[in-house]
Specification:
MetI-like fold; 13 helices; single chain; two-stranded antiparallel ribbon; mainly alpha; 2 domains; 275 residues
Length: 275
């Protein structure tokens, strides 16, 4: 009984911290949603004085082309997720399975975007892509986003491959499967939860990029983050918040899609090993 009584304050404190964290996350989101339908909200009023649909009307009006910008943002983010996950899978396999000269140097190179300040790294990427003739193009933006997202995805895939080990792949080869077949039929399905995690992380990082998109895209490649920021800088919080609502909704929709796919794949693996 005494131990239970001692744990009650700890549980209460933990619940309070969780509630505070939820408030810190959901509070700003709620403010953005309200601002999207607000015409006037002067300080220090707790509630808006007048409401308006101007943000939604201008957002989906012919001049704004929100649908076109949203489609471009989703397309760039999906391309980044596919490219990053493919490269991260190969890098993760090399870092976790093979021992070769320069392995630690390769691991360090993969982690460089973590270590270098984002502004400095973005400038270096911009200069490299200008020399390659990819500045101001969608391909250049996708490549730049992939470079930034690669460390996250590579670490996820390397850890997953180390946890999976090589026993199943070796057994598949003993049974007559070639290297490619063993990889496609045994290892890749087993790594699908990690692949989905790496892809979702890469997608979110790409979808929310502003500074790197501005530098590499040279203002020619339009994304939601790029279009939203000028309204925020000019003080037009109604339009900026309307874009923010679309931004949040699109991110949550794709994240939930990845989550559903991940749960389905995990359930299939559990049924397979239990059956």
């Amino acid at each position: 009984m005494s131990r239970r009584r001692e744990r009650r304050p700890v549980r209460a404190a933990a619940r309070a911290l969780v509630a505070l964290q939820a408030l810190c996350v959901l509070g700003p989101v709620a403010i953005i949603v309200v601002w999207a339908f607000t015409a006037s909200w002067p300080w220090p009023s707790l509630l808006p004085e007048t409401f308006s649909a101007r943000g939604i009307e201008e957002l989906f009006g012919p001049a704004q082309r929100a649908g076109e910008v949203l489609g471009a943002s989703v397309g760039i983010a999906l391309a980044t997720a596919a490219l990053t996950t493919a490269v991260a899978t190969l890098a993760g396999r090399a870092l976790s399975r093979y021992r070769f000269f320069g392995r630690e140097a390769l691991r360090f190179a993969v982690l460089l975007p973590f270590l270098i300040p984002a502004t400095v790294f973005a400038m270096g990427v911009q200069v490299a892509l200008i020399r390659a003739g990819l500045a101001g193009t969608v391909a250049g933006v996708v490549l730049a986003h992939s470079i930034v997202a690669l460390p996250y995805a590579a670490l996820i895939m390397a850890d997953a491959m180390e946890a999976a080990g090589s026993r199943l792949e070796e057994q598949a080869r003993v049974c007559g499967a070639g290297g490619a077949r063993a990889w496609l039929t045994v290892i890749l399905p087993m790594l699908s939860p990690s692949l989905l995690s790496a892809a979702s992380m890469s997608y979110i990082l790409s979808f929310s990029q502003y500074f790197l998109t501005l530098l590499v895209g040279s203002g020619k490649v339009k994304t939601l983050a790029l279009v939203m920021f000028p309204y925020l800088a000019s003080g037009d919080r109604t339009i900026a918040s309307a874009y923010g609502v679309v931004f949040i909704a699109a991110t949550l929709a794709v994240f939930l899609l990845f989550e559903v796919l991940l749960r389905k794949q995990t359930a299939r693996e559990i049924d397979y090993f239990n059956g």
